[in-house]
Design a protein that fits this description.
With about 425 residues, this protein is of the alpha+beta class. It has helices at about 30-35, 75-80, 120-130, 170-180, 220-230, 265-285, 340, 350-360, 365-375, 380, 390-415; strands spanning about 5-10, 15-20, 20-25, 40-50, 55-60, 65-70, 85, 90, 95-100, 105-110, 115, 130, 135, 140-145, 150-155, 160-165, 190-195, 200-205, 210-215, 240, 300. It contains eleven helices and 21 strands. Helix 6 (about 265-285) packs across helix 8 and helix 9 (about 365-375) runs antiparallel to helix 11 (about 390-415). The longest helix has 28 residues, at about 390-415. The two termini are about 35 Å apart.
Length: about 425
């Protein structure tokens, strides 16, 4: 079975493989020379770490079986696990997997063994709890992710899942909470990876094609391309390319005439969407407290209306106003909606107005609404507001949150009725 992956590296580097092929940005030079060499016929998987020249590659060379290569910057314990110095032979086969973490930590495993170093204590305790003298109680690891500041996730082959996510990882924590609230079964998780160098950067993909991720703006298109093509049929083989630049496609959507907005509706939505993206990005930048300002750029929590097309990042600033709907779209005159819309301190729009705006995206669906709703959680929104605006901002965000929920219910009923 084809293995697809996305691995975060130092200085916003990455390497990924999807049905669209291999893509990368600024990988270690020794790794780049290897997987672009003429002898490499297929890259099966790769992992890059936060330290210089720390990487592992599984690939096939012409007239050879799968080979495992690794960089000189890998931790010595990992090198010993992968390679026998005395016999000068590789110890592991194609089923081995390696995940790098911060501070020279790693977790490596195959069908019959595993090795780790410097992993968080809580993860080590979980591993011990999953083991018994007779073997694994819940099955061996199926997925492991190591992130910055002690973040980790582990899923067993039998579906047991455990994790630790720091409170400051807002996007990741809220995604996990949202999925838990849906009674999501973790056996349906298809892929997960954390960034070991930057807090709250990750990608997680479910088998129902739902996905969430957060990454530096410079790599947002690459992450979207990986996630949105994860379940596509494999493209014909070709040479790997550096930093592919596909069109935005955050959700796997089939074309539907009902989702095709008029030019005017699309223009209204794009204007409002860009305004929202600017406000959210500026507020997120204002909340960030980077240890190395020269390296840290704005992050994007990938969601339907959170893509900024500006090449200049906004000046960091917490929100002092709410991104209200365009007045030209606040047109509903139903008697039942007028009292709510007339409230002086309210949103000034009803669910019919919001639906009209959202349909201008051309992506309107239950899943699109579910992801859009995440941005309007009142607690999350409140953290992006200046103190003087926080109470008002949370109140209006809660109205948007509830409207999104109503629209999700309606959209689900519509889908079930086959309309």
């Amino acid at each position: 079975m084809e293995q697809y992956f996305f691995s975060f590296g130092r200085d916003d580097s990455y390497i990924s493989k999807s049905p669209e092929g291999l893509a990368y940005r600024n990988p270690p030079r020794t790794l780049l020379r290897l997987f672009t060499s003429e002898g490499v016929s297929n890259v099966e998987w790769a992992s890059i770490g936060p330290d210089e020249d720390s990487w592992v590659l599984s690939c096939m060379k012409e007239k050879e079986n799968t080979r495992i290569y690794f960089g000189d910057g890998c931790p010595s314990a990992l090198k010993a696990y992968l390679f026998d110095e005395e016999s000068r032979t590789v110890r592991r086969g194609s089923d081995v997997r390696v995940v790098f973490g911060p501070k020279s930590s790693f977790f490596a495993w195959d069908r019959n063994s595993m090795r780790w170093s410097n992993i968080p204590e809580s993860l080590e305790e979980t591993i011990q709890a999953w083991l018994s003298p007779a073997g694994w109680k819940v099955g061996p690891p199926r997925m492991v992710a190591l992130g910055a500041d002690g973040a980790w996730f582990m899923l067993s082959e039998y579906g047991a899942a455990s994790w630790e996510i720091p409170d400051e990882f807002e996007s990741l924590a809220e995604t996990w909470d949202e999925w838990e609230d849906e009674d999501f079964g973790w056996t349906e998780l298809s892929f997960v990876a954390f960034d070991p160098t930057r807090p709250d950067q990750f990608v997680a993909i479910r088998s129902d094609k739902t996905w969430q991720g957060a990454i530096d703006d410079s790599n947002s298109e690459a992450l979207e391309a990986f996630a949105s093509s994860f379940f596509k049929k494999r493209s014909p083989p070709g040479r790997p390319s550096a930093q592919k630049r596909p069109s935005h496609s955050n959700l796997d959507q089939s074309w539907n005439p009902a989702n095709t907005p008029t030019p005017a509706a699309q223009a209204h939505y794009e204007t409002w969407s860009t305004h929202c993206a600017t406000l959210f990005a500026a507020a997120a930048a204002a909340r960030a407290t980077p240890k190395s300002p020269s390296r840290r750029g704005p992050r994007s929590a990938v969601s339907p209306a959170n893509i900024s097309t500006s090449s200049n990042p906004p000046r960091p600033s917490l929100m002092t106003s709410f991104p209200h709907l365009p007045p030209s779209l606040v047109t509903c005159r139903l008697p039942s909606c007028i009292p709510t819309k007339s409230a002086a301190s309210g949103l000034g729009a009803c669910k019919h107005d919001v639906e009209a705006l959202f349909r201008g995206s051309g992506l309107y669906s239950y899943e699109w609404l579910r992801q859009e709703r995440l941005r309007w959680h009142p607690d999350r929104f409140g953290r992006l507001c200046a103190e003087s605006f926080k109470e008002e901002g949370k109140r209006k965000a809660e109205e948007m949150w509830k409207i999104c929920e109503e629209l999700m219910v309606l959209e689900k009923k519509s889908a079930e009725s086959g309309r």
